[in-house]
């Protein structure tokens, strides 16, 4: 056999083996992430302990005694893996910053943000990944006072306002909460609709199959709701 053919044969085999190894590595990525969260992982704590940590952090933030100030600490360690203690489904409002509000450092919260803090399919997939492969023990749907997305939904339903672009799709996702709140004849429709929006999305997460509901039933995951008061910085459970 000629040298060129032998060389080509070796290169082809090397190329095939390299590609096969890369494919195998890629297929094992979720399994590696899952394995990292087993045993003595930093977030291998109970759902109640996880919620206590973030609520204690919120108390520090509201009283202006936050402890997380050195954001370079443990940066190298975080490059290797992440172990968030809680997942937060938050509004995209620029005044709401979950890491600050709960006084948690980088890598401690897995945050999904969307105007109106509702759960769509993409957000749900992100949360499923965080729970199954990162070991998140607690989730919080976090609404906030004076939410513009909820307020806009109220105006659309009340005055038949027409919104541009893709905004109608956002309104449709929040509309069930506003309609449920209106049935209660609350003194403050915006506040009640905000809370109802949180409750509906907590329920969706708790009952979501095939992943989240199983973790909830096994006691490995707790899902709660809260409303962040922009004026005080305090999170009130719903």
Question: What order do the helices and strands come in, and which of them pair?
Answer:
Elements: H1 3-27, H2 29-36, H3 47-62, H4 75-78, E1 86-90, H5 98-101, E2 109-113, H6 121-134, E3 138-144, H7 148-159, H8 167-182, H9 189-207, H10 212-217, E4 222-228, E5 235-237
Parallel strand pairs: 1-2, 1-3, 3-4
Antiparallel strand pairs: 4-5
Helix pairs in contact: 7-8, 8-9
Description:
The protein has 238 residues and is α/β, with parallel strands linked by helices. The protein has ten helices and five strands, in the order ααααβαβαβααααββ. The protein folds into two domains: 36 residues; 195 residues, Carbonic anhydrase (Beta-carbonic Anhydrase, Chain A), CATH 3.40.1050. It is 52% helix and 11% strand. A hairpin with a 6-residue loop joins strand 4 and strand 5. The chain is globular, with a radius of gyration of 23 Å. The N terminus is likely disordered.
Describe the structure concisely for a colleague.
By secondary structure, the chain is of the alpha/beta class. Helix content is 52%, strand content 11%.
**What overall form do the CA principal axes indicate?**
globular
Helix vs. strand class: alpha/beta
In spatial order, strands of the major sheet run 2-1-3-4-5
Question: What is CATH's topology name of the largest domain?
Answer: Beta-carbonic Anhydrase, Chain A
Order of helices and strands: HHHHEHEHEHHHHEE
Assign the CATH class of the largest domain: Alpha Beta
What Rg is obtained from the alpha carbons, in whole angstroms? 23 Å
Strand content: 5-15%
Tally of DSSP β-strands:
5
CATH A-level architecture of the largest domain:
3-Layer(aba) Sandwich
Beginning-to-end CA distance, first to last residue: 77 Å
Number of domains: 2
Mean pLDDT: 87
Number of helices: 10
| CATH H-level superfamily title of the largest domain | Carbonic anhydrase
User: Biggest β-sheet, characterized?
Assistant: 5 strands, mixed
Unreliable segments of 5+ consecutive residues:
1-38
- The proportion of residues forming helix, as a percent range, comes to 40-55%
């Amino acid at each position: 056999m000629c040298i060129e053919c032998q060389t080509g044969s070796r290169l082809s085999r090397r190329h095939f083996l390299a590609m096969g190894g890369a494919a195998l590595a890629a297929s094992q990525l979720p399994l590696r992430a899952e394995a990292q969260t087993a045993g003595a992982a930093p977030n291998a704590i109970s759902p109640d302990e996880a919620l206590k940590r973030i609520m204690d952090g919120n108390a520090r933030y509201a009283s202006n005694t936050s402890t997380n100030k050195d954001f370079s600490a443990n940066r190298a360690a975080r490059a290797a893996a992440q172990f968030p203690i809680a997942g937060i489904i938050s509004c995209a409002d620029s005044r709401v910053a979950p890491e600050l509000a709960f006084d948690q450092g980088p890598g401690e919260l897995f945050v999904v943000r969307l105007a109106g803090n509702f759960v769509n399919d993409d957000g749900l997939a992100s949360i499923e990944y965080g729970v199954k492969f990162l070991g998140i023990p607690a989730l919080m749907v976090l609404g906030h006072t004076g939410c513009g997305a909820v307020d806009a939904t109220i105006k659309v339903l009340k005055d038949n306002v027409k919104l541009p672009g893709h905004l109608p799709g956002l309104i449709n996702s929040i509309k069930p909460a506003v309609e449920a709140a209106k049935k209660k004849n609350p003194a403050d429709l915006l506040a009640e609709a905000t809370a109802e929006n949180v409750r509906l999305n907590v329920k969706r997460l708790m009952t979501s199959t095939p992943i989240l509901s199983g973790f909830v039933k096994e006691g490995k995951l707790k899902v709660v709701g809260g409303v962040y008061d922009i004026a005080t910085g305090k999170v009130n459970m719903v």
